[in-house]
Amino acid sequence: MYIQSNLMMPAVATASMVAAALADPLVPLVWRRSLIQVLSALCFGEQDDVAAACRETARGCKWSLYEEIGSGRMIDAASYAFELLMAFPEERERLGFYQERYRVNLAQDLHPDNLDVHGMDW
């Protein structure tokens, strides 16, 4: 997955496994924060081609990420999910809606008065 902070090709397979785990209702909820954190690290890694492939995998689990934001289970997990969804410009409108509607589920720095997703340069 990583060699001295550099993404390697197994990162894409790892991203797929993490995305599958996020969709599995049998995976304990306490693991969600860590799973989303790992997926974020893979999607924003230093090797552009590998990170891009990981983002494509994450795009496939975007509904699990939105569900995490709306659930209110854990602010950290919801915030990681929100930040990961910011990697997808086509999600700007929906993400803005979730930011407004579920602001109490997000970290303070992600609230609309602190971060304008509509005005971001995507």
According to DSSP, the number of beta strands is 2
Taking strands numbered 1, 2, ... along the chain, how are they ordered across the largest sheet?
1-2
Shape: globular
Number of helices: 6
Helix content: 55-70%
Please state the CA-atom Rg, rounded to the nearest Å: 14 Å
| Biggest sheet record | 2 strands, antiparallel
- End-to-end CA span: 27 Å
Could you give the order of the helices and strands? EEHHHHHH
On the 0 to 100 scale, the average pLDDT is 91
Return residue spans where pLDDT drops below 50 for at least 5 consecutive residues: none
Helix/strand-derived category reads mainly alpha
Strand content: under 5%
Q: What this model shows, in words?
A:
This protein is mainly alpha-helical and 122 residues long. Helix content is 57%, strand content 3%. The chain has helices at 10-23, 32-43, 48-59, 62-71, 75-85, 92-101, and strands spanning 2-3, 6-7. Strands 1-2 form a two-stranded antiparallel sheet. Helix 2 runs parallel beside helix 5. It is globular, with a radius of gyration of 14 Å. The model has no long low-confidence stretch (mean pLDDT 91).
